[in-house]
Amino acid sequence: MSTNPRVSLHVETLPRSLLDRFRDSDIWASFKRSKLTIAAAALTLFFLFAALLAGVLSPQNPFDPAQLELLNSRLPPVWESEGQIPFVLGTDEQGRDILSAILYGLRISLLVGFLGVAFSAALGITLGLIAGYFGGIVDTLIMRIADIQLTFPAILIALLIDGIVKSMLGSSLDAGTTLSVLVLSIGLSFWVQYARTVRGSVLVEKNKDYVAAAKLIGRPANAILIKHILPNVTGPVLVIATINLALAIITEATLSFLGTGMPETMPSLGTLIRIGNNYLFSGEWWIVAFPGFSLAALVLAINLLGDWLRDALNPKLR
């Protein structure tokens, strides 16, 4: 009696992509459950794409004096009796379309915010890794500097650094140099939070077995810090960076409102608010209202994302 040979099927398990792992993660499940977080993410993406597509969406280039007409100055929004097309949200005292100015101002505010956060995160993470891993006099020096800086509000630190740099470079600065000074001022104002958080995580991680094994096989200190310890301390850093992005945008707007930020020829949202504030009591409310509303909505959306990310990455709340 003959029997059929048993046929065995071997199915190879394909490696899951990063997107598939993210969709199955607790973070994505937490994101889908929160309608407020979804709305905040959609609003943030709306502002981001509006800034990126400012050159396409804007009726005019508010940074180009050749496109400005003083005869069109202080026009109200289009739904009022004196409003004109294409100035949907009205114009300012230079005949600059408010909608175009907001879109281009968003680009500058977001650029300063992202670059400021990137600079402060890079500086703070580096100092935190060094302080936590090596300890001793290096740790003491870095932490005492951080403690001294924490005694002053971030906006005062930014104002101080901005004033010192501008006094060294002179008062005649172009827009590009002014933007770099703003990024430097904001970055040096927010590095302490990253340094203290990363230092605390490194103090825990450096005593674990994987670090001891890396030392045993002769791995250099910089390789241990970058390839082994740093990936394990990125969770809190992402939360701080998200929240600090909103703080950096607010700080830039405050500096511009006080007259030490971006010039009127290349206004950010803070500069637009400062310009509009001069005409608020004369009846031209739209010059300050729409930039102010855009800034408030952007900061609120980013803050809501930061709060959600903090809760989503907290294992005690899962």
Short description:
67% of the residues lie in helices and 0% in strands. The protein has 13 helices and no strands. The chain has one domain (43-64, 82-317): MetI-like fold.
The percentage helix is 55-70%
Computed structural class: mainly alpha
Number of domains: 1
The oligomeric state of the chains shown is single chain
The H-and-E topology, N to C, reads as HHHHHHHHHHHHH
Polypeptide structure, described:
With 318 residues, the protein is mainly α. The chain has one domain (43-64, 82-317): MetI-like (MetI-like fold). 67% of the residues lie in helices and 0% in strands. The chain contains 13 helices and no strands. The protein has helices at residues 18-23, 26-33, 35-52, 54-57, 98-134, 136-150, 154-169, 175-205, 209-216, 221-229, 234-257, 269-277, 286-312. Helix 3 (35-52) packs across helix 13 (286-312). It is globular. The chain starts with 17 loop residues before the first helix and ends in a 6-residue tail after the last helix. The model is unreliable at 6-14 (pLDDT under 50).
